[in-house]
Hints:
63% of the residues lie in helices and 5% in strands. By secondary structure, the chain is mostly helical. It has a two-stranded antiparallel sheet.
Amino acid sequence: MALIACPECSADVSDSALNCAKCGVQLRKPKRGFFGKIIKYTFIVFNLLMGWWLVAGMGAASETIQTAGSSAEQAGAAIGTGLGAAMIIGLWVFGDIILGLFVMLTRPKS
């Protein structure tokens, strides 16, 4: 463990310290652990996949609605599209809440 000089007050501080013990200035930022990084990137990938799923699903559903023969088929496809979109959005919100809590709980401690 080496000692470094605080840039603010010039006191000797451990090189592994996050803050100066004398003046409290931040010397380095805390880093997220391995598990925290996995959770954070899982959160990001989940949001990207859910966005893609919603856009791709709505595109495919609009094609189905346009190619449906009768008006009853078009109405059924529109209702199914609305229900599917609601389920995707509900899953997205629920997943974001759960993963967001994990991201918050695994953030670096100061």
